[in-house]
């Protein structure tokens, strides 16, 4: 009798799995189709992209489009700048948001509730509201336009990252940190060598989110940096859109060069990303 019931349960699970895959597979194909068409367009000449026929297989002009892109924008150099900015921004932002989250989670001080409320309030503000004041302060008051400091420092504070790390540190057992204090361990060592290793999955998830945000950032680098030789990759791609000519083949080739490596990185690190998000959401 028990073998029959277990067989029914396994058959029911198999049926639910098949139904779920039948439902999700078309959605996945719908999501992947624009990416595939981007790859197709990157292998076609400009005039072929607007051909009335629908092309679903790659052509042979990808290297030509890449060469034209490199000639017009020095795209390889722009990618190097984007990588440097994104890596530096991710490291500093993860460190800053972790310290802020640790303070909000583990210390009691006057006005703590007000600070948390202000951080929550900043999430509701559209980026366009703070963009112009931030530009005026950085470019006019601090004279930091066309510098790496202007590219990296202003977006460092991330409200969602602070709240995410606050939640992560709040879930950890306080007795562990109290025991370290009893042993005479200083606060900064508790944070660096006890709290951060325990929060490794959450830190990995936050780092992936922040890196992708910096990698795809277009508007702020466009405003604060006007030097052609110091453009990030998204801004360099935008320069291909002119008043009388648009290099669609180059744009698609550049979009592929920016997108595919990030997709590969995400696929390789998705286990850490999912684990970090799940660990930060369960209390």
UniProtKB/TrEMBL annotation:
Membrane topology value: Multi-pass membrane protein
Regions that span the bilayer: 20-41, 75-102, 114-136, 148-169, 190-213, 246-269
Sequence ranges assigned to domain ABC transmembrane type-1 in this UniProt record: 79-269
One Gene Ontology term from the biological process aspect of the record: transmembrane transport
Cellular component, GO annotation: plasma membrane
CDD domains: TM_PBP2
Protein localization: Cell inner membrane; Cell membrane
This protein's UniProt keywords: Cell inner membrane, Cell membrane, Membrane, Transmembrane, Transmembrane helix, Transport
Major location category of this protein: membrane
InterPro entries linked to this entry: MetI-like, MetI-like_sf
Subunit structure as annotated in this protein's UniProt entry: The complex is composed of two ATP-binding proteins (UgpC), two transmembrane proteins (UgpA and UgpE) and a solute-binding protein (UgpB).
Family: Belongs to the binding-protein-dependent transport system permease family.
Chain's role: Part of the ABC transporter complex UgpBAEC involved in sn-glycerol-3-phosphate (G3P) import. Probably responsible for the translocation of the substrate across the membrane.
PANTHER family in alphabetical order: ABC TRANSPORTER PERMEASE PROTEIN MG189-RELATED-RELATED, SN-GLYCEROL-3-PHOSPHATE TRANSPORT SYSTEM PERMEASE PROTEIN UGPE
Protein name: sn-glycerol-3-phosphate transport system permease protein UgpE
Species: Mesorhizobium temperatum
Gene symbol of the encoding locus: ugpE
């Amino acid at each position: 009798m028990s073998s029959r019931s277990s067989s029914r349960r396994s058959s029911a699970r198999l049926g639910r799995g098949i139904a779920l895959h039948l439902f999700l597979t078309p959605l996945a194909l719908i999501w992947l189709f624009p990416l595939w068409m981007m790859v197709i367009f990157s292998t076609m000449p400009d005039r072929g992209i607007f051909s009335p026929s629908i092309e679903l297989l790659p052509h042979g002009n990808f290297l030509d489009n890449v060469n034209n892109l490199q000639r017009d924008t020095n795209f390889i150099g722009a990618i190097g700048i984007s990588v440097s900015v994104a890596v530096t921004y991710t490291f500093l932002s993860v460190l800053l948001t972790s310290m802020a989250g640790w303070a909000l989670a583990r210390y009691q001080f006057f006005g703590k509730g007000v600070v948390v409320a202000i951080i929550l309030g900043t999430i509701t503000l559209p980026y366009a509201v703070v963009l112009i004041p931030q530009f005026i302060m950085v470019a006019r008051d601090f004279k930091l336009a066309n510098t790496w400091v202007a590219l990296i420092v202003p977006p460092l504070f991330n409200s969602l990252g602070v709240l995410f790390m606050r939640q992560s540190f709040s879930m950890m057992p306080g007795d562990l940190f109290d025991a370290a204090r009893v042993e005479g361990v200083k606060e900064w060592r508790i944070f660096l060598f006890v709290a951060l290793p325990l929060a490794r999955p959450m830190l990995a998830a936050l780092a992936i989110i922040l890196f992708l945000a910096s990698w795809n950032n277009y508007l702020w680098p466009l405003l604060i940096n006007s030097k052609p030789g110091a453009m990030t990759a998204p801004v360099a791609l935008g320069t291909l859109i002119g008043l009388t000519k648009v290099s669609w083949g180059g744009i698609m080739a550049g979009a592929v060069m920016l997108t595919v490596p990030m997709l590969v990185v995400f696929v390789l690190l998705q286990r850490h990303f999912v684990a970090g998000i799940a660990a930060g959401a369960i209390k």
